[in-house]
Amino acid sequence: LPRRIAHQDFRFSVAGEYGGLGLYVKEHSWDYSFCSSYFKAAGSKMLMSMFTDLQRFVLEYANNSAVGISGSVYTQITDVETECNGLMTYDRYLKVSANDIFIANQRLIRHLSDTDTLTSSSVVKKKNRDFWFVHE
User: Fold this and answer.
1) Are the C-beta atoms of residues 39 and 21 closer than 8 Å to each other?
2) Average pLDDT value for residue range 98-123
3) Which residue, 15, 43, 111, 115, has fewest beta-carbon neighbours within 10 Å?
4) Where are any strands of DSSP class E within the chain?
5) Are 127 and 91 contacting, i.e. CB atoms less than 8 angstroms apart?
6) How far apart are CA 135 and CA 130, in angstroms?
7) Backbone angles phi, psi at 132, to 5 degrees
């Protein structure tokens, strides 16, 4: 995550890119020898644990007045050819549970927002919607 940028009334500090957590999934990834990421997980549980740890860092940055970020962008959602650092593979196979990702993201939203939080049923399971990230 970024180092502190001095606050200015016209500018927000944002972690513009964080993530890079990799997991190679046989038969859903390109050749493993080309599987690049910043950090490699040994399995789905480890990947989710690493994701949750990064979410905690974002929360700490947001709540720390010495650092104080106002937003963050997780990268990346899907694998891209020789990069295996997505939460989904190149062919959109989920590496971790969509519900677990939802819960981790809700934890951030709940701590950082005064508004009502979304529920899993209102986002992931709405009828007549084809969410490309949900495999049931």
Assistant:
1) yes
2) 67
3) 115
4) 14-19, 21-22, 39-40, 71-75
5) no
6) 10
7) -70, -10
Residue showing tokens 């599987």: 35
Distance separating alpha carbons of residues 34 and 82, to the nearest angstrom: 5
Tell me how long the chain is. Answer: 136
Between CA 133 and CA 76 the distance in angstroms is 13
- How buried is residue 47: exposed, middle or buried, by Cβ count under 10 Å (0-12/13-18/19+)? buried
Distance CA 33, CA 23 (A): 13
Let me know: does 68 contact 62? Beta carbons within 8 Å: yes
Token pair of 130, please? 């084809």
pLDDT at 35: 84
The position carrying tokens 């789905």 is 44
Q: Look at residues 16, 17, 27, 32 and name the one whose alpha carbon lies nearest to residue 84.
A: 32
**pTM for this entry:** 0.73
**Positions of E strands within 12-59:** 14-19, 21-22, 39-40
Residue type, 78: T
pLDDT at residue 29 greater than cutoff 80? yes
